Structure formats: C-alpha cells, structure tokens
TrEMBL record:
InterPro entries: DUF3533 (IPR022703), T7SS_ABC-Transporter (IPR051328). Residues 1-24 are annotated as: Disordered. Gene3D superfamilies: abc type-2 transporter like domain. This is DUF3533 domain-containing protein. Residues 41-403 form the DUF3533 domain. The lineage of its organism: Bacteria, Bacillati, Actinomycetota, Actinomycetes, Kitasatosporales. Residues 1-21 have a biased composition (Pro residues). Keywords: Cell membrane, Membrane, Transmembrane, Transmembrane helix. Belongs to the ABC-2 integral membrane protein family.
Length: 435
C-alpha cells in the first residue's frame, strides 16, 4: 500500500526587512522643528560674537579719541632775541593747539614730577618732554658754541598695554619731528653755507625712553590682561561646573560620561537652598583655582608679580565674584543661563576690557560697556598690582569697589530670584530613577 505524500508545511512568517544604517537619524533630521531652536541660537551667537569681537579692533586709529598724553616743558631759558617766549613754551603751545591731534589726544600739561606720577599710576599713555636748557642748546646751533644737538624726549608707558603705549609714542614722535622741522625752517633761513643749512633743517634729536619700566617677564604689558582672563575663565568655568555637578549629585540632572549614564535619586531641596549650596561650593573651589593659577603663572612660568599676598587675595575675590554671578544667572534663567553668563562675562567683557586695545581707540559702544563690564574693572586692578606698585589711584580702588558691588549684586539677584520662584511654588522637576 502506497503511502500518501506528507502535507505541505505552513510557510514561515516573513522576517522584517532591516532598516538601512542611519535611517532613524535621517528621518529625524527631516523634522524642521528639530533644527529651529539650535539653529536660531547658534546663528545669533555667531553673528553677535563676530560683531562684538571684530567691531572693537578693526579701526583703532580711526576710532582714537582723547588718548591722555602728558606734555612737559622743563625749559626755563630766556627767550631768543626778538621773541617773547622761550622755545620750550612755543613748542608745547604749538603741540597742544595742533588741529591734527585735537580729537585724538588729550594733552595734559604737567610738570615733570606730576608727569612721572601719572606714568607710574597708568593715568597717561606716554609723555613728550622738553628738557631744561632746550632754548640755549637750540640757539647755540648757529654759533661756534654748539656741542650737541638739542633733544626732545618721548616717554613710553608699557604698563598700559603695548598698543596704547605705541599709539602715544607714535603721536609724540610725530609731534617732536614737526617741532624740529618748524625750528629748522627758522634757523636755516639765516644760514648761508649749504652744509649749515642742511644741518639746521632738522636740528632736534628725538630720544625715546621708557617713562615707567616694567619687568622683562610681563609680556610687553600684556601679562595683566591674560592673567585677568585666567581669573574670569576660572570663575566662569568653575561656576558652571559647580552648577552642573550639584544638579547631577542631587538628582536634578543626568550624568553621562562616554557610554555611561547615571541618574541619582532626587534630594528634596528648595531653589534657595540649592543656590546657597552652590555659592558656598563656588567660594571653596575658588580658593583652589586661584592658588593653582598663581602656581602656574608665577612659580612655574616666572611671571613678574610683586605683592604676592595682595595678588592672591585680589585674584580669589575676583574669581569668586565671577563665580557667584554665574550661579545667580543660572539660578534665574535655568537652561539658557550658561549662554547668558557667557555673554555677560566673556563676549561683552573681552572687547570692552581696554587691556589689549585701549578704550580710547574703540567705538563709543565699547567705552560704554567698559564703565561696568567686570573684566575692565578687574584688569585695571591686576594691572595696578603687577605694574604700578598696587597704587589705589592706578585702578585698584575702583577694582575693589567693583568686586564688592558684584558680589552683593550676585547674591541679591540669586537669592531674590530663587526665593521668588519658591514662593510661587515653581519647584524644580524631581524625576525618580527607574526601578
């Protein structure tokens, strides 16, 4: 008996076709809403940073306004025959009345002692000095008594920054050269010998000297700016790290390092108490960062830094003021707080600090920002300690006042906003970890 063939087996279910690599990511990338917020924010940040940074440095010569320069007349000689004033008075009057520098320079007519004091406190960017006996030495050129060329002295002030000191030096050298040519035109008019006319055409020697020298390990006057930048970055980055670390440890933010993701159980705590905790931790960590900044810059790299105890105290207070400001802004604005604080302490502060390009050579908008932006005040304090013997009138007093006001304002703003949120019942989300 023949056996019947076995019944056909049921066809197996069709296996799903695997999605091509990246399909999910490309599908999500086609959603316009996913691009909107980061695209708008990144575009605005790029545009504003470009305008702020480049707008302050592209045309410093064209924007130069009221650069303070000392004008010193030490000539006490008798006027030349037929003239009412000696040559020192004539030269300084002509320089001060020059239309070429009427808007760009604020000439400060000082005696030598006052000019040296202004240079030593950073109140002037340089000085043009007519030395004693100038009239007599010029008059002697037309006689057999001449022993050397008359001299006009240009004093620089590298402590105010290399660019600002260079501006003042160029202006002073040009003014001295014009004075020499004007004198030469008068002197050579009475000379008959071609050789004498050639020598008298430009009779004055212009000598450039440092009016207030700084140390050789001062970055040509830029160490104050970069040291201030270190303090601001330490406060800014440290404040944001404390903010993120505390929120992660208390369970209000997730932690993700590489492929490892953790979420802690939420600790019940009010916004006000959280801000207090972050402020205390910012103060404690500022001690560490300040000490390490000084170890790196002074001990390891050899930066010229007198008044070390004062520099440490000032550095700690400056770092703390910035860190508290960051905490207050983050507490008030939440997720976009880091972006807001970046503009307050970095984006707006750097071009208005006046430490690389003097504010007198920037557009009016930056001079307005420099009146209250923290980096301007801090850089003047650091500069006073590093270059100007920690003189209060060199900007240190203003810096201390600004630090004090900044700390008070940060604490008042931070506690005010968090207390307001707590009273309104605007508590933070408290997601619990999964079982």
């Amino acid at each position: 008996m023949e056996s019947s063939p076995p019944p056909p087996s049921d066809p197996s279910p069709t296996a799903p076709t695997p999605a091509p690599p990246g399909a999910r990511a490309f599908a999500l990338a086609r959603r316009p809403g996913l691009w909107l917020v980061p695209g708008v924010l990144c575009g605005l940040v790029a545009l504003l940073l470009s305008l702020l940074y480049m707008g302050g440095i592209l045309n410093p010569s064209d924007n130069l306004t009221d650069l303070p320069i000392a004008l010193v007349d030490e000539d006490r000689g008798a006027p030349p025959p037929g003239q009412r004033e000696n040559l020192g008075k004539q030269i300084t009057d002509a320089v001060a009345a020059s239309e070429a520098t009427a808007k760009t320079v604020e000439w400060r007519r000082l005696d030598r002692a006052a000019a040296d004091d202004a240079l030593a406190s950073g109140k002037v960017f340089g000085a043009l000095v007519v030395p004693p006996g100038f009239t007599a030495s010029v008059t002697a050129l037309t006689t057999a008594k001449a022993t050397r060329r008359p001299v006009l002295t240009v004093l620089t002030n590298p402590g105010v920054g290399s660019l600002g000191s260079s501006f003042a030096s160029q202006i002073n050298q040009k003014a001295a050269r014009q004075a020499s040519l004007a004198l030469g035109e008068r002197l050579s008019a009475g000379a008959t010998a071609p050789t004498a006319r050639l020598l008298l055409a430009d009779p004055v020697e212009v000598v450039t000297e440092p009016g207030h020298p700084i140390g050789g390990h001062s970055g040509l006057g830029l160490s104050a700016f970069y040291y201030t930048l270190l303090l601001v970055l330490s406060g800014f980055i440290g404040g944001n790290l404390v903010h993120t670390g505390v929120d992660t440890a208390l369970g209000y933010a997730d932690s993700e390092i590489g492929p490892w993701h953790t979420r802690h159980r939420t600790v019940p705590i009010s916004r006000t108490q959280t801000f207090l905790l972050k402020a205390l931790m910012t103060a404690g960590i500022s001690v560490l960062t300040t000490s390490l900044v000084m170890v790196a810059t002074v001990a390891l790299l050899g930066m010229d830094a007198p008044h070390l105890p004062l520099l440490w105290v000032f550095s700690f207070c400056a770092t703390l003021a910035v860190g508290l400001g960051v905490q207050a802004i983050n507490a008030a604005f939440g997720g976009i707080g880091q972006l807001v604080s970046m503009f307050v302490f970095i984006a707006l502060a750097l071009p208005s600090s006046g430490a690389t390009v003097p504010l007198e050579a920037t557009p009016g908008f930056y001079r307005f920002l420099g009146a209250f932006e923290p980096m301007r005040q801090l850089s003047e304090g650091v500069r006073a300690i590093l270059y100007f013997d920690a003189r209060a009138d060199a900007g240190l007093a203003r810096a201390w006042i600004s630090i004090g006001l900044g700390c008070v304002a940060a604490l008042a703003f931070g506690f005010g906003m968090t207390h307001y949120y707590d009273r309104r019942g605007l508590r933070r989300l408290t997601p619990q970890p999964e079982a």
